[in-house]
Fold this protein.
Amino acid sequence: MDYKKLIASYPELFSNESALIRVITDPDEIAKWQEYKFKDLERSGNPPEWANIGSVFEDPYVIIIRDLVEFPGGYRNGYIRLYNRAYLEGGAAVVVMLSEKDGKILLIRHYRHATRMFHWEIPRGFGSSGVDAISQAKMELFEEVNGEVVEMIDLGVLYQNTGLDGNPVNVFLARMDAVGEVEYEEGINELIWVSVPDLEKMIADSDITDGFTIAAYTKAKLKGLI
């Protein structure tokens, strides 16, 4: 996605109002910094691409932006951030569902490419362009575990990595009526229902290491919903 189009379409993402770290969008200022940075990278033997400013990577799912920013002391440098394409195209970025039935919480055993291992976690999914968060959450539960939802309770939003990821994560407590077979094609090979004390023990013992799961549990617990 063209950087100028991003700035024009999503001015709130580039606003410097009350910002301690300012985004520099003036083309002349960017060019001036890049001229200096290219020479610095050449001297150090590093790739000149490290000085690129704008949309530096995109695929059907994510867009990575490198902005020129100015820190409070006046130092300027490139700084990357990541957005889900669905979020920029009017949909939910990520949806996370803590699923409950008869006082127990649903966990799925999901193989994750990034860590190259299995994780016990609650269902979640990327958003889809133009699809609101609740609709996306219900679709994800149906796709991953053939789940039938009785009630969807909004637990608010969280940000999973504020140093990199600009996507708001929508968190829900899903009261379930039933679940079916897991979606093996997505890397899920098992599901279990656990009591809240067992869930807490799994978190404490690092049997659960997924941050989304821990955050959703925390929100539901502190709201007195589980």
Observations:
- Helices lie at 3-9, 27-44, 85-88, 133-145, 196-204, 211-222.
- The first strand starts at residue 22 and ends at 24.
